[in-house]
Structures are given as structure tokens and as C-alpha cells.
Amino acid sequence: MIKSLQEEKARTAAARVAAEEEWLPRLDRQRLPQHVAIIMDGNGRWAEQRGWPRALGHHAGAETVRPIIEATSALGIPFLTLYTFSAENWRRPSEEVNALMELIEHKLQDEIDDMDQGNIRLEVVGRWHHLPDSLRQEIQRDMARTRNNQGLRLFLALNYGGRAEIVDAARALAEKVQRGQLDPADFTEELLARHLYAPDVPDPELLIRTGGEMRLSNFLLWQSAYAELWVTPVLWPDFTPADLYRALYEFQQRNRRFGGL
What we know:
The chain has helices at 2-23, 43-49, 54-75, 94-117, 133-146, 162-178, 189-193, 241-252, and strands spanning 35-39, 79-86, 121-125, 153-160, 206-209, 228-231. The chain is α/β, with parallel strands linked by helices. It has one domain (56-231, 240-250): Undecaprenyl pyrophosphate synthetase. It has a six-stranded parallel beta sheet with strand order 3-4-2-1-5-6, sandwiched between helices. It is globular.
């Protein structure tokens, strides 16, 4: 099946290059978003359409990540957040969850050298301290290794839920009130935002969802209040830099009014 996966990728390579050549020149490099977030959906469906195990779809999806990171970095976009494993994903069969944990860990091990050499800073958002020990230790090593890199800040949302993030922020504020460090009358949106997982990161301007589903799936609920949504039926394993460029181009055609006229 791995050979079939390689053949599948090879068959589409020429088409992808042609598509990239179509969309990349259309981009205005002066009007790119500062932060792009992606819901990487469709791995299981991609495999099922081919009569393959869902696990092979996750492996195919993992192979998609690197070219998207490289394309984002090459464009000079400062922030990229990838919805890697949601808090709700624990409800999947244990065999699939365990395979995903191992896959994430192995891909980090395989990619960290290139990320470091590419000046990419790896960060993780979510309740990632609840992940399996070996994966958590790998994350800690990789974040420490890339801490001083000045290029793309790559965020993996792991064991992440948007509602849980807001709850964690509210709990931190409540603890400050309990200690007498904060008056509830001083609560503001800005104050709560400073207690989110990555308070120094601008809100995503463009949120991409693959796989055609028209929902946020508990991803960056607070931060996406005014994000431009771009949904494509393309399943994540088939998503290419050309699709990213198209999303960026269509983002640049929109008039962002933030509630104004």
C-alpha cells in the first residue's frame, strides 16, 4: 500500500506544478495575511475512497504538511497554525488514536532538523501536557531546540479545543481574583486574550478548511471572530501549495470590514 501511495503522489506531481505556476504569480506579496490557520480535514475519507485503511490516509496527510510549511515560510508569512489533533479526536477508536500519536512523534523526529535549519520556530498550543510521555518529551526537545529561530512560527494545535482554551484562560483569571491580584470589574476582552495559549500571536486573518465541511470544529473560536474562511472540497492529502496560493489570492480579493459598512 505504501507503493500505491507513492504512485498516487507521483501521478499528480506535474499537475501540481502547473497549478502552482498559475496561482503564485497572482499573489500580491505586500498584502499577505500575517497568520494563516488550517483545519487539515479528510485524511480518513481520502483513504476510504481508495479502499485503503484510514491509517494510510493519516500517513498521506502527514506528507502534505511539509510542502505547505515550506510554501508558507517562503512567502514570508510569519505565523501558521495547523489543527493537528483535537480534544474530540480522543473519541476515535484507540487503535487509530495510538497510531496518530506515534505518527506525530515520528514526523517531528524526521522533520525537526530541516525545520531548525529553515529557521522555523516550533510551538504547540492545547493541553499538550496530557499527551503520551514520549510525544510530550519530543515536543519539549523540539520547542527548546528551535526557541531562538526567527523565521516562521509554526504552531501545532495538539489536544486542542477552542472552548477548553477559553475555559483555561477564564480559570487563570479566576485564580488571580481569588488571590486578590485582580478585580472582576477590570475584566476586558483584551485581558482575557492575554491569557490564551499564545497571547503574543495575532489572530488568524485567513482560516482554511479542507475536506468541504462547513464548520469550525472547535478550532480557534476566540481568535477567529473576524477570520476570513476559505473552504475547499480538496481532502487534506491532496492539498498542495497551489491550493494554498489560491486561498491566499481569494483572500486578497475580499473586502474585510470588521462589522463596518
